[in-house]
Q: What sequence folds into this?
């Protein structure tokens, strides 16, 4: 299976996926930490991928998503964005709505 296929499988296999540096419990950069915190604040159950532990995904995800930096948040298979967009959506109350829709299958 190619790296692109692995990424596709991860993104399509979970309603909410955060590709980040580190883990939600032990983030390895401030941006990843803030994105994970915004999701937790919304009560989101999300799948995380530590790109530092998987160099192939770290190298290929920016090509897959056409987004150069980490973290990267996907909801229902769609790239939402990075830290700034995630935090902004959270502050506007939009992230909570998106999370609720994703987790109830809407």
A:
């Amino acid at each position: 299976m190619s790296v692109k296929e692995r990424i596709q499988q991860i993104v399509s296999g979970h309603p909410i996926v955060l590709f980040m540096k580190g883990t939600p419990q032990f983030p390895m950069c401030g941006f990843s930490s803030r994105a994970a915190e915004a999701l937790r604040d919304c009560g989101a159950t999300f799948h995380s991928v530590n790109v530092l532990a998987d160099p192939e995904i770290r190298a290929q995800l920016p090509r897959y998503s056409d987004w150069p930096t980490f973290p990267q948040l996907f909801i229902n298979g769609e790239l939402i964005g990075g830290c700034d967009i995630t935090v902004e959506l959270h502050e506007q109350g939009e992230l909570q709505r998106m999370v609720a829709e994703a987790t109830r299958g809407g």
Notes: The two ends are 30 Å apart (CA to CA). The chain has a mean pLDDT of 96.
